[in-house]
Design a protein that fits this description.
15 helices, binds protoporphyrin IX containing FE, single chain, 4-stranded mixed sheet, about 475 residues, 15 strands, globular, 3-stranded antiparallel sheet, alpha+beta, about 10% strand, iron, monooxygenase
Length: about 475
């Protein structure tokens, strides 16, 4: 039964909740963010839903989402479906598993990302190297296959994964490397499994563990756990406290220091948080880049303007670095538009009410999950953006300066605001800059891309191809 004064929404049927109505509407709208935005038109911006046995509140529009994301009472993380003996057990992360240790761990990783630097490598050099690896791959592929046609949506995965892995564990892998292929396969499987039916109908874990996707989830979760544990064991063997090579080494130093012992730091916690970083940081960044390049191909004038800025500020031979960022407002705005196109089609990670509370006047009982639909904030007609579906970096520029509206919230807001924002923005900026400096991205006439996209754990463009060719310069730069 619906709790009293619970947010309005479609009728709840026994066992199924309002899953049938949602599934029907989704067939028509094609996307879950559209479905809940459409329901919000009937029931209001705070929607009370039940999917299977899971009671869920979905929040639309910037005003309601600000109240939600800034509420302390709604700042828990889900406890349920993914947190059981066969997987997480007593392990805790930051993202999916709950907040007992969240604050200290979050502080540690935020500090690492802010002050990032090991030996001569800082965040910029680490990502620059990875972008140059991708450039080398594109040149090699073109020469070997005598073809300049590339599948764009898979192009960045390996390199984004490598940038995360280099930060955490100090190593990178080539595409052909067995370990990298293993890591990618495990992550793909885990991503698919997180959205499987057992997450909406937990009882299926016991009734139909194979069919509901639960067994796959357990298997891939535990594979990733073992993979990271192995890396940790290797780090412990080769660890030199005075010269940390990466975030894992710094964490090991904390574990050794008596000051911190007894607090939330532990080897299991480290592995759990590394897992969160992969889950939260890999597909999000790769898909933002895919959206960015999709729209640059569909809008060649934007691509040309970005290239003109790169030529003027960086030139044609030096690698673009994060130091160039203040002088490249146009490319920064291309980054912002790419983020808007990605996050405007996404939900945030679910939150949980840590006590009985109210949101926009409705009652939210303790432990109910609440999730933000960012579509209404950044892409819907009513979002306040002029022509929101168009890719127009200029919308963020005013007299040559960047000005972001209040409802630009691709990284969320408040206590749980994305931990990896600095790294994500650096990755998107440097990959765009390095690739546009060297190549033109064009349509393959026989297979022109469309702006269509697909739902997933995170949204991404439908598979599309582009012709990537070395830039032709017509001026005397
Ligand atoms: C374009 C890329 C990215 C986007 C759009 C993005 C967006 C977000 C959003 C919307 C949230 C949820 C906020 C909430 O629940 O209220 C989040 C949380 C999080 N993100 Fe990101 N993210 C990106 C990349 C990254 C990267 C690269 C990392 C890791 C290096 C990362 C690590 C995290 C973590 C650990 C959390 C949970 C924070 C917490 O609960 O305290 N993200 N992100």
């Amino acid at each position: 039964r619906k709790p009293k004064n619970f947010p309005p929404g479609p009728k709840w049927w026994p066992f199924l909740g309002c899953a049938p109505q949602i599934a029907n509407l989704q067939k028509r709208t094609n996307h879950l963010v559209f479905t809940t935005a459409e329901l919000a038109k009937t029931y209001g911006n705070v929607l009370g839903l039940k999917v299977g046995t899971q009671v869920l509140v979905v929040v639309n529009g910037i005003a309601a989402n600000k109240e939600f994301l800034l509420s302390d009472d709604l700042s828990g993380r889900p406890l349920g479906e993914f947190y059981d003996k066969r997987t997480w057990g007593k392990r805790r992360g930051i993202l999916l598993v709950d907040e007992l240790f969240w604050q200290e761990q979050r502080r540690f990783f935020l500090k690492q990302l802010r002050e990032f630097g090991f030996g001569t490598r800082n965040m910029s050099t680490l990502i620059e190297e990875e972008a140059q690896e991708l450039i080398a791959y594109i040149c090699k592929f073109t020469a070997l296959n005598d073809s300049s046609v590339f599948n764009i949506q898979n192009l960045f995965n390996l390199h984004i994964l490598n940038s995360l892995w280099k930060m955490l564990a100090g190593v990178r892998y080539d595409a052909e490397d067995k370990k990298m292929r293993e890591l990618q396969a495990i992550l793909n499987e885990l991503f698919r499994a997180v959205g499987a039916t057992f997450s909406h109908f937990p009882i299926l874990k016991y009734l139909a563990p194979e069919k509901s996707g639960y067994n796959v989830y357990v298997r891939s979760h535990n594979c990733l756990w073992r993979f990271l544990r192995k890396e940790l064991a290797h780090h412990k063997e080769t660890h030199v406290p005075d010269s940390p090579r990466d975030v894992i080494d710094v964490y090991l130093n904390v574990l050794k220091s008596s000051e911190e012992s007894g607090k939330s730091f532990s080897e299991d916690q480290l592995v759990a948080t590394c897992m969160d970083m992969f889950m939260a940081g890999s597909e999000t960044t790769s898909n933002t880049l895919s959206f960015g390049f999709l729209y640059l191909i569909l809008n060649p004038d934007v691509q040309r303007k970005a290239q003109e800025e790169i030529d003027r500020v960086v030139g044609r031979t030096r690698c673009p670095s994060l130091n160039d960022r203040p002088n490249m407002p146009y490319l920064e705005c291309v980054v912002m538009e790419s983020l808007r196109m990605f996050a405007g089609r996404a939900f945030t990670v679910p939150h949980r009410a840590i006590r009985d509370t109210y949101l926009c006047g409705y009652r939210i009982p303790k432990d109910v999950l609440v999730i933000a639909n960012l579509y209404g904030c950044m892409l819907e007609k009513e979002s306040g953006y002029k022509n929101p579906e168009a890719f127009e970096p200029e919308r963020f520029l005013s007299n040559g300066k960047i000005s972001l509206p209040d409802n630009f919230i691709p990284f969320g807001l408040g206590k749980h605001r994305c931990l990896g924002e600095s790294m994500a923005r650096a990755n998107v900026f440097l990959f765009l800059a390095a690739l546009l400096q060297k190549f033109d991205f064009g349509i393959v006439p026989e297979q022109p891309p469309t702006a269509e996209w697909a739902d997933g754990i995170t949204p991404g463009p439908k598979p599309f191809k582009a012709r990537i060719t070395p830039r032709k310069y017509t001026d005397n730069f």
